[in-house]
Specification:
By secondary structure, the chain is an all-alpha fold. Helices cover 75% and strands 0% of the residues. The chain contains 10 helices and no strands. Helix 8 (172-192) runs antiparallel to helix 9. It is globular.
């Protein structure tokens, strides 16, 4: 097996879980949805996406297959982002549209980091412009851009955000505002390269804590709500993608300035 970091293992396991869930549901998992009903061969795409998630997740864990698995996963997620997410963002300036696009962007960023790490000789010869330091910079920009709408959503849907704060925490409104501001600040820090490593790590921690403190207890309570299950899967996948981007800063100072 080839495990480059804990984040790498978490990301691979998240993709495996998404693949299994897609096969069981017979529908798109959160990272791949929504897909318009009128898209040709939509049912085929459902199982294609599930297979790509499962196969690439497994492939990322093995040394011989890590490079092609990362390449295929990045290609599919990037194509999905460009075909289904970007057009929707420009056609509908709503938080919901931006949110779904940003979810995919975080996963693209995580896959891009892995591809930059595991690129084989063929990749360096033919696709050298999207791997190495260049690839990492692109992944970080995508991640930074995605964090900002996540933070804005905390304010646009303040009541919903406040309702999700665990009951045992005081000052629910404060936490809704604080976490929203933190995501926006982290996104800007990653984009401009000021304390970028610290910002990426703290944002990954925040997303992970949101998964642990909000969605895990809801699921543990025996929720059968499809929306809540979907959001739990999304949050776990986003944690994995964020973790990968944070891992991409290894070797850089926590307080580095102007190093994107």
């Amino acid at each position: 097996m080839r495990i480059a970091s804990v984040g790498h293992a978490v990301f691979a396991l998240a993709m495996i879980a998404l693949g299994i869930l897609g096969l069981i549901k017979g529908d798109f998992t959160p990272v791949w949805e929504p897909v318009p009903k009128g898209v040709p061969a939509r049912e085929v795409l459902v199982y294609f996406c599930a297979f790509i998630s499962l196969a690439s997740g497994i492939g990322l864990l093995w040394q011989r297959t890590a490079a092609p698995a990362a390449r295929v996963l990045l290609s599919c997620l990037l194509l999905w982002l460009l075909l289904f997410r970007v057009p929707s963002i420009f056609l509908s300036f709503t938080v919901e549209t931006w949110w779904s696009g940003c979810e995919t962007a975080v996963m693209v960023a995580g896959a891009w980091v892995l591809y930059a790490w595991f690129a084989a000789d063929w990749d360096r010869q033919h696709l050298g412009f999207v791997i190495g330091d260049k690839g990492l910079r692109i992944a970080r920009v995508l991640y930074g851009l995605a964090l900002i709408p996540f933070g804005v959503a905390h304010f646009a849907y303040l009541e919903n955000t406040v309702a999700l704060v665990p009951g045992w925490l005081p000052w629910h409104g404060f936490w809704a505002y604080f976490t929203g501001c933190a995501l926006i600040a982290a996104g800007l820090a990653v984009l401009i390269g000021v304390y970028a490593r610290l910002a990426a790590a703290l944002s990954a921690f925040e997303i992970g804590m949101f998964t642990l403190l909000v969605w895990v207890p809801i699921m543990a309570a025996g929720s059968r709500d499809a929306y809540q299950w979907s959001e739990t899967v999304v949050s776990a996948a986003l944690t994995a993608g964020a973790w990968m981007v944070a891992d991409s800063y290894r070797g850089m100072s926590w307080l580095a300035v102007n190093k994107r």
